[in-house]
């Protein structure tokens, strides 16, 4: 039996050294010194390695492909797999810096398993400085990549194919144990440190604790079908959408919170040692105890266009008789006061004074006692 085991392990070792089972597809191109792939399978990569790659995407109108940056950190031993995705909306930049910093600082000799980072998934959106993926055919159209997962290869618009390729080539092809999709609010909005989480998926409640976020929205994801979160969640894979602050900024405090969460996350998955820094532990324990779990959003919207002065900010506790904004016409005459739709906590504000009919001014989050809202309304 011992001999058989030795023989088997040596055969497996030989197969591994020959890379016979390789599934990562290399195009043969090299850009800025990094290899280009069309599909990622992290099981091909050697232990104790950090690899920066370009994922070749569908081709643009001029026949040139977009390339999405991917970083693979593989530890000294096999173990769990953590995916850190960012920039799926092209104006949401804080998460990109989280991915860069975590993958730069991670000590491979202490890592057990694999961390994959995507520092900026929507290359088109970053070129255009917008959350959308912009299709250029006809008069142009917008695709929300975070509503198109898993998609179907070679079907739909350019943006839909781009989303499908991200899914089939990285997100959905690597048996990730836990997934964090980093976002921020959209341009002109404000967010605190905030998480969307479907608490019916095993281990997701624990992830929300590990974030130490200001607010967790308990959410089944039914209004965000096709998101990275809902697509992994449907498969029972623990996942959160982690909204770290505002668009078009690199906010150091928000980035630090995403960074610290990521190391707590891999420690909780037995992939990395826990921090022993007393200051970090104390800060986190305070944050964890103060997380607000809410299950319902209520927006205050304007009925017509005009200029709005705001009197509220995220994390303010507000009541329905409190003025949170006033609309003025272009001559400065008051048009209307606005109030929150419910008593609760301000989650988000619209800081662009120029409002069009239907624009939201503030979003309040509260904890509805309606039994139908227990997993989110
Ligand atoms: Zn987003």
From TrEMBL:
Recorded GO MF terms: hydrolase activity, acting on carbon-nitrogen (but not peptide) bonds, in linear amides; hydrolase activity, acting on ester bonds; metal ion binding
Q: Which InterPro entries match?
A: AstE_AspA_cat, N-alpha-Ac-DABA-like, N-alpha-Ac-DABA_deacetylase
A Pfam family reported for this protein in Swiss-Prot or TrEMBL: AstE_AspA_cat
Which keywords accompany this UniProt record? Hydrolase, Metal-binding, Signal, Zinc
Any idea what this protein is called?
A: Succinylglutamate desuccinylase/Aspartoacylase catalytic domain-containing protein
Instruction: Specify whether Cell inner membrane is a keyword of the entry.
Output: no
User: What start and end residues bound the annotated signal peptide?
Assistant: 1-22
Recorded hits in PANTHER family, A to Z, give: BLL3975 PROTEIN (PTHR37326:SF1)
Q: Does the keyword Zinc apply?
A: yes
Q: Which cofactor does it need?
A: Zn(2+)
Species, as recorded: Smittium simulii
| SUPFAM superfamilies, alphabetized | Zn-dependent exopeptidases (SSF53187)
Q: Which residues are in the Succinylglutamate desuccinylase/Aspartoacylase catalytic domain?
A: 79-258
